[in-house]
Amino acid sequence: MLTGSLIKKGLVDELLVYISPKLLGDQARPMVANICPESLELSPSLKLAEIVQIGTDIRLRFLPIS
Fold it and tell me: Where is the Bacterial bifunctional deaminase-reductase C-terminal domain (predicted)?
């Protein structure tokens, strides 16, 4: 919930997302909670700034678009 709240308030400079080749299923914690836009146009927009492979994981760096 903290991540979603910070994004909604515009307090995020960048968002680092790690993707691992593991499947956790629908009982896993959501990456971002507390953001429920009524349409895609109202959802926070991000720009992909970097992709880095770290071992078998991938790190994505996103920057907010104002």
Answer: 2-58
The string of pLDDT tens digits covering residues 10-45 is: 899 999 999 999 999 998 888 888 788 888 888 888
What tokens were used for 37?
């836009």
Q: Could you tell me if 65 and 15 are in contact, meaning their C-beta atoms sit under 8 angstroms apart?
A: no
DSSP state of 25: -
CB proximity list for 47: less than 8 A, separation 6 or greater: 62, 63, 64, 65
Interatomic CA distance for residues 60 and 40, integer angstroms: 21
pTM (predicted TM-score): 0.80
d(C-alpha 43, C-alpha 40), whole Å: 5
Q: Which of 56, 66, 55, 62 is nearest to 3 (CA)?
A: 62
